[in-house]
């Protein structure tokens, strides 16, 4: 039995165009393995292909090529078991406004064939802190409550994998913390979590592995610390009293650039070099430093670094 919760191999999706719209190659033969028990982040700019990937796993979009399996079940050969192994929290807050949270969870459990005695409706309502609203019309819930209800809805059949598609978009900080608290609880109890998010700092904080997808291609997929260290760069801005016309020899080993007459920018990988080594190189070059400042790369920078090499026009990504 595979150790992966989700295995995606050569997954391809072309949305057929129409008279006025060309075909859209949304996924270009992507490979992804998501380990059982992990908290996995799928990051990418708008239009990268995150929702397409998730919707294929959910059985809502048909793939054009390749394969995907969920908890060892191929989505094409064994769609019932594949579907039973995953719970998906969609991006949009889609609801039947006249159902109460309790009814909604009961109906959903029924749709998954969960016998009445096996249902965990009350437990779920408590977990997402909606027990007080169990019998209220869903249309009376706040946006945050609706979001929590959608998580509960995705868990009615107690799947081993929970996928959250941009769960905190437009959600305030306090609620975001509550959501993550519950997601962390589920994870601690053994649920594999996959989330797509634009909040890069959240992926950094929550996920043990991150894949970055851009224009339908996987740009990176690694354990979070490895991803961070691989490209973690520090930019050092050094002002010198000498007028700079060309890069001093002692600094040529670094990724350095003359920004203006007296200003040098040196980028160093924190794994390879220290700031001290850069300063020593300046001293070897007989430069007189009058000012120095540094800036760390965060995941946002890394994300830009990784995606800019394959990035096309903004309109294509929109
Ligand atoms: N039903 C569809 N028909 C045609 N093109 C589509 C369809 N759904 C998505 N696309 C296109 O496929 C590409 C990938 O879209 P997708 O929604 O998967 O991206 P995403 O990474 O989830 O973006 P976002 O973060 O904005 O949700 C985009 O260019 C999008 O316009």
Automatic annotation (TrEMBL):
One of its GO terms (molecular function) is ATP binding. Residues 6-240 form the ABC transporter domain. It comes from the Bacteria. This is ABC transporter ATP-binding protein. InterPro entries: AAA+_ATPase, ABC_transporter-like_ATP-bd, ABC_transporter-like_CS, ABC_transporter_ATP-binding, P-loop_NTPase. It holds the Pfam family ABC_tran. Keywords: ATP-binding, Nucleotide-binding, Transport.
